[in-house]
């Protein structure tokens, strides 16, 4: 899937979007209303984005897409478009940015800048993290993972993540971030949230076992499988299943999703090392990640 997506990125770098029709503002609109209208007029319509994708990728007969969101980006004037691309190799969330004139698009990450670029995300996470954790609360480095139990990339990244979590001077926190494209991820997140509140130790065993048996779990058998996993790690599965459907559990998952979105999480797994975002884990870079942790501990 990575090679396939790389080709999509290359294509997107050289494309243009047709200019969208601007909306007409009412002369009686208040300044704030005019500002909001101006923001909206800079956003491409779903029809424009769909036409753009069709022109770019229509030749890929097994490729489908779903527009996830079209919204103003954190950079004034740019529109942020997020789409789910899928083919037989799997699904991938990707995004691109559209210029105010609606004629150019660019692919890439908007990264924080300044003398201490990672502090804003670090402070937001310090205030908002609520998931299960391990390591000392006083550790100089806090690693926060936003994960999805149905995500194959999360499963593949677990050895690398576990190695980072085991490093000295690290406090490791897991935050649920179930992706819309996964049909039992939200349920998995609910079970995981309840497991974390029932037993911190059992939570980590639950996550490991869920990833281990990920391919056997479906939307149809998720309750049965997840309940059995809870039983298997020493927590009464029926209690976890009952907790998973409570409104307060959904509220906690929604809060975790909102926290992730506030620090620009769009896919999983995404890690933050004292606020530094690591959005694409590669086991070949394990030594680099270790160096990042060690560097953060000295700051």
Quickly give the structural class.
alpha+beta
For the CA atoms, what is the radius of gyration? Answer: 21 Å
The CATH superfamily of the largest domain is known as: Glutaredoxin
- Number of contiguous helices: 11
Q: For the largest beta sheet, what order do the strands appear in spatially?
A: 5-7-6-8-9
**Which CATH class of the largest domain is shown?**
Alpha Beta
Instruction: Kindly report how far apart the N and C termini lie.
Output: 37 Å
- Cα shape: globular
Structural domain tally: 2
Low-confidence stretches: 1-6, 9-39
Order of helices and strands: HHHEEEEHEEHEHHHHHEEH
Name of the CATH architecture of the largest domain: 3-Layer(aba) Sandwich
pLDDT averaged residue by residue? 87
Helical percentage = 40-55%
Determine the CATH topology of the largest domain: Glutaredoxin
Major sheet description: 5 strands, mixed
Description:
The structure is a single chain. It contains eleven helices and nine strands. It is globular and about 55 Å long. The protein is α+β, with helices and mostly antiparallel strands. The chain has two domains: 2-107; 119-298, Glutaredoxin (3-Layer(aba) Sandwich), CATH 3.40.30.10. Helix 6 (185-198) runs antiparallel to helix 7 (200-212) and helix 6 (185-198) packs across helix 9 (237-244). Residues 1-6 and 9-39 have low confidence and may be disordered.
